[in-house]
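re: ur question from the group chat, yeah i did fold both. here u go
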Amino acid sequence: MKFRFAAFGASLLIFCPGEGLARQDQPPSITVGIVTDGSYPRHANLTQMVRDEIVRLVSIDVETRVPADKTAEGDWTVSGINAAIDRLLADPEVDLVVTLGPIASHLVAQRRDLTKPVVASLIIDADAQGLPRQGPGTGVPNLHYLVAVHTERIMPAFREIASFNRVALLFNEAFVDAMPDLSARVRTATADLSIDPVVVPVGADVGAALTGIASDVEAVFVLPLMQFTNEEFTRLATGLIQRQLPSFSWFGRVEVQAGILATRTPDTFAQQLARRIALSIQRIVGGEDAATIPVAFAAQERLAINIATARAIGAYPTWKLLTEADLVADEMRIRGRQLSLDQAIREAVAANLDLASRDRAVAAGAGNVKLAKSILLPQVNVSVDGSIIDPDRAEALSGLLPQRTVSGSASLTQVLFAEPTWANYSAQRSVQESRVHDRETLRLDIALDAAVAYLNVLRAKTLERIERDNLGLTRANLETAELRVSVGAATLREV
């Protein structure tokens, strides 16, 4: 089926889906159907995002509908997904089909007798999958696919983070069923990288997927496994960590946040993909042949590394990578106690051992001052004396010495003037004041050092953030320059 346009008045183009001419008093309209590989529990908003972008952009030219009842879900089998594709291709109400899944996209891209335009949107590696290519487009009538992630750059980026030779590639088992020669194709595609790839089919059982990874595997490359729930994918990532296996995600940052070590696909990938699908549909609706529309688009790339995973498996990315990458789960950077300036100063003063020693010296000096002052205070002396002698001896002395005697005395003295004593007291007070001032000087020095260190940390963090922002802007400018060169709007000098 082809789109036909008829003139209406002097400037209006009427879009006519299906056979026969549309009445010229009717507004132009198209209906877009979507095929998925199955239910996407971790990417539930992907289909709606694509619907919204298609309606928002394509409706500028023609009324566009992407009804929910024209979304056909496969059952994660080749036969079920093919049946979903056939159902929409045969549906007379559907004018254009979008396959939103790697398996459905691969299966439809193998067909050569498409009766209506098809946009296959999730192609993993066009060369390895043996997809048709003629010039910038597919060369197949009514077929257009999108190559977004540059897989040939992923493995070199992965090996910058972790050294390995034997790597397991986790594919959905239905994708493996759709490509019986997948292992041979992967080996051919990676022949120049000096690695030993092993294809591991992954079904609905996370435990079986982990068991299927051989013991001699040194790294894991995770292809789109959209059948898993968030909990199941986290179990997969945790299992890879427990086996000390570095991992790399094709799909993007959302999987790195779940525990995968790294990715080069940014978290904006889904939005970019949805917009590119809408742009391709707009070009097809505008009259371009789907077979000639370029299949490649310059998707942004941004390295993201899960620092918690890196620590857990003993992987140590270079400083250059850590500087340029977005660091996920960087608990040492983000977490920890947070102190205000006042709290930092108080804790520094309370924990300083030199100051604690100076406090003891001041306390001892206060005792010396009291001792020097005590001599100048009134002195009271009291004494009591008593004696008892034997009765016979007292009798022999005829009363001259009583048998029991008690005597006491009391005296009060006050120093009125004694130069050495007053001088000692004055000196001790001066020395004590010196000790107190020295302690306060040390306390202020400690507070100053703590405040300066605190502000230096804030300054360093600010400078780091500024440099990271500058790096991000530079990277964005580079991507823009490369995109301008790729579309012929600039020269290599701009790059």
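okk and heres the other one u asked abt
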Amino acid sequence: MRASLIATGLALLSPALAAAKDPSPSALRRVVEGALDRPAFAAAFWAVEVRSLTSGRILYERNARKNMTPASTLKLVTTAAALDAFGPDARLRTTLESSGRLDDQGRLLGDLFLVGRGDPLLGRPGPDGKSGFDALADALRAAGVRRIEGRLVGHDGLFKDRRGEDWQWGDLVWCYGAEVSALAYRDNCAALLVSAGERVGDPVALERTPESRYYAVVSTATTGPPGSESDLRLQRDLGSNLIRLSGTLPIGGERKELAVALEDPALYAATAFGEILEARGIRASLGPARSSDPVPSGARTLAGHDSPPLAEILAEINKHSQNLYTEMLLRLLGAQVKGEGSAAAGRDAVAEFLKRLGLAESASLVDGSGLSRTDLVTPHLLAGLLVAMSRHPHAEPFRRSLAVAGVDGTLERRLRGTAAEGRVFAKTGTLRQSNALAGYVHAKSGARFVFSMVVNHHTAPAAEATAAIDAVVEALAGY
């Protein structure tokens, strides 16, 4: 199906347009409508806009000024606003602070505060296997600390709320719906790698990452016969960090990785940091404390760690569609622009940014990531944003943050071996019954396009929706 759509698109588009500076709107219309007007989408709703960056003309529009559920293409708005507010070189600092005295025996006589300021990559291992938590622990030991005669407090007071206003209950157990916090460890999640046993009825093998006492796993899952269906089931009740695994995984079946969100990220971070300190011979007299405990006035900084540049964080967000990092950015925007680290303040900051760009259309921005099913944005607004960012002082880091067709991120396996490979820089969007793609096309002819395409309310397989979108994008790239 996808190959036939692409072949049709190229056949319609290329011959008619070879001598034109921009594609003929009528020829482009035939390509788009040939891809979208199929029985599988008879009850669905498409909205599309294609513009030429070369001439500035709108080459095709279909319901382009209608509000649509954008899914993760909304991340374009949040990341553009953050890049405008902070710049690509901004770094986010995490500190260890205390008002306690360090005595000559290496005892810190007071509480130790791990103060998060929105670094989403802090607890993520780097290429060397070490994270910002390891760097902070090493710095604390180098400062002479051998014991903390007090509590270890994970402090994330910069942010005021932890979830989107109307995220669905079913999202909250999974890593893509993890709680938002200014202090994050391993994306506020735990990963379970499940493998079949050697014989039918054997318990499945289970690997946990990280191995932390903060959460527990109870598994009754067993190994099923070769060729049987996998029916693994996972449950984590809200308010609990007890994960229950049941069902079966067949012999010879692929290993399953289940990424589970955990409750109270700051307490999780403090617990994990305490375990990292223990591995270095540093122990706290009392366990981790709640993040609501204030940092005492007069506390001094014992160690600090800076995040990678914001440009690298944006690439993690847009290439891999990372919800948590986007929601952290939204609250950082609120803190920077409006003086409050909340989603509401972040939305206000984004709205002001769009207004400055002349994009003050009717839109409903409920969160920053697009996980909300009540986010509403028009393709015309997204296309206008892409045009504006192509002229922005930080245009290049913005474009580099996007997934590249056939190369990396969420587009790594799409459009390989086609005219679009390496020529399309875009953000994907996927929710149930919604698929979207928005970004830039650098055509073979040297022409430059921006596009925003979204389909809502479809019941066709997602692969059919992405094939239709890809047929249009490939035709543009081959122009």
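fwiw on the second one: The first helix runs from residue 2 to 17. The first strand starts at residue 45 and ends at 52. idk if thats what u expected
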